[in-house]
Predict the structure.
Amino acid sequence: MFYVRLFGFIQVERDSVPLDGFESEKALALLGYLALQRRPVARRLLAGLFWGEKSESRALGNLRRVLHNLTRLLPGCLEVTRHTVRFLLSDRCQTDTAQFEALTATGRPADLAEAIRLYRADLMEGMSFPDCPEFDIWLVGEREFWRQRVIQSLQTLIDYHHQRGDDEEGVRLASRLLALAPWREEGHRQLMRFLARSGQRAAALAQYETCRRILQRELGVPPSAETRALYERIRDAPAPRHNLPLEPTPFVGRGAELTEIARALNDAACRLLTLVGPGGVGKTRLAVRAARDQVRAFLHGVFFVPLAGLEEPHLLATAIAEALGLRLTGHEPAADQLLAYLRDKELLLVLDNFEHLLTPSHTEQAVSLVLKILQQAPGVKVMVTSHQRLNLRWEWLIEVKGLPYPDRQAPAEATYSAVTLFVQSARRAMRRSLEGEMEEVARLCRLLEGLPLGIELAAAWTSEYSCAEIARQVERGLDALSASAHDYPPRHRSLRAVCDYSWSLLNSEEQQAFRRLGLFVSSFDLDAALAVTDAHRATLSVLVEKSLLRETHVGRYLLHAVLRRYAEERLNRSPQETEATRERFCAYYADFLRRQEEALQGPHQKSALQAIESEIEHLRRAWEWATERGDADVLQRSAYSLYLFHEMQGRYQDGVALFGAAVKACEARPAVEDESLLGRLLAHWGWFLHRVGEGEAAHAALERGLALAQRLNDREYIPLLLVHLGDAARVRGEYERAESFLQRGLHLYRRLGDKSGIARALNTLGIVASIRGEHATARAHFEESLALYRELGAPFGIALALNNLGIALDEGGDPDAAQALYLECLSIRQDLGDRYGMAAVLGNLGVIADSQGRLDEARRYYERCLQIAREFNYRAMIAGLLN
């Protein structure tokens, strides 16, 4: 048996005995190259790769000689024909790289450990041939590929031993990982954790200092906030990162449930934990409190993802990314970017109100993403709250029931959680004492089966009614439901009864406001509430006092999911009122978007993006309703801001879905006003199709849009469509056509005096000129574009123009000026939180430092760039850096 060791110095063994007789190092290098290719390789390619400096005949002659040497030493391992050569991997001829792949493919910890032992050193260590530059370039990339495979395997093993609590083995593996990638901060953090957990606190703190020195020396940067947070956590246990919502009222009871949840989450075998129970039972409050207790247990934090306002399963990945603070770049589907980000993270995701994604049409897509997270991100755990289980093999279940309450024989004491909650809620609603009413409080808690939402609603009435009166009304409602509402499960009837009674206590104006608030699927501000409900502020205050509406921040409100469904059900009983309320809803959010349009193109871009983000569920809902109803006015007023938002946030896939649905609906209503709208919708849909790489569909949509816009003389959108078509032509390599489109668009923008449009057209023209080697022209275009963006004060545009002008200056022979622009661009993108943009400009800074011989500085820039690129799996950027 022949065995080729490619990790470290190449060694070949025959029956475990080292094999000699290779005529040169190139012969070994050629053998290694073939063993890694595992496919027939053309002789001419091999000759050019290893003897490219010689004539073709001499190169082929050298190849024949070396192949003769190899086939003589390794009979049966090479298949040589007149045109190709192939390494034959078989039981007779094996390599350590193939063995590594087979072992890692199983995913079993023992196999991963054996695979890592095979990695003695870098691939084909010591191999380098000055006369074979293409081979050396290939080898650099191949070494990095295998190094990353080993690092990934080490990471998997480290995670495995972390979950098992095997700190001693964790220390050994983390140390090995850091020997391969000393700048890898995550490895330092994991080693710190293992050391701390094994009682070596001083060594863990010393490891932080080692990390700090390495990062400063290698990259010129301090440790990240996450690493510093871990250091401080070991030193004095501060709270790590999370986004858990504030608890508006004191948390009551649930000690047994919290213990059970903690035990499950601390079990390495538990990856998916579902809290199952009816609406109003307190699943969200319980999950938030349990997650808060787990913050210190997860290296990368705990993240709460509210799903009550999510109506489409394809938006689940985007919702999770928003909660994580992950900016999607748009170059890949949101789910792929999310999975890449989570792959090496150790965190807890809390997916709240998952039940409405478990419908027949939504279940598969929604549950599929959860499953992929569990499969591809071994350090991530998921806690779900839902009315029903997800039905995955990974799933652990905890049933959430009502709070404990006294039975008829027990004394009515406040030691029962249900009674405690009622008393606390009543204190907020009234100023009188409940003394002498505790028997009736206990009766109420029994009637409501300990359901927290029902208890809070009933307690809100104590400012006007005695507990006995409240109990009689709830009991009467239960009797009515038992007689008439057979479709209500028994455990839901008590909550329905209390909702009905709360409703009956409202006056007509309050009822009207409450049912109209049912359209809001997530938190909303005061202006939106007043506009949609057509109510007074005092009316909303009454709903807050009666616990039907919750005030989350100053001027921002939220309906409990159960109450929201109840309110919307009440509203839907009147189709006429439903339609009118939806019209006000759509009109308000169309106006909201129109107000953001100017800000999105000026100095307030960041705040405008945040404002839109906070209302995105409602904006989607308004857009969908307007699409269904054919409300051209709402769609017209909303379209441009939604286009800018999705473009600047990199949410291209969402843009395709949003505008594609509107195009389809508009095409079904052939009218003059719809034709005008259709042209604009096609402009945005076509652009997002272009951004996701659907070139032919994008071109067709943009051409249709331009024809419509020109026929209707849509002066605003004709130049936009021309610029979009120009960029699409640029991507296809049709530079003359691209320039023609762009110049026409620029001319029309100048006639309109649209500075933002002019800057956009100039920027794309600059890119085209740069590609064509017209550096002076490119520079002039970028300089004018930058001047306009500065005049507008638009940070995204300024950063874009700075980066592109920097490239033009560098290519034109002025690297110092380019570097100054890159540094300014980097500062802006850091402020915007644009990680992808930061990585791009860091790479450009590295290129300049590299070209000027400042190699240490170049390496620091490249490493910082690579660190971000790997963190977010920007694969094209990673490949470019490694090349």
Notes: The radius of gyration is 32 Å. The chain is about 65% helix and 5% strand.
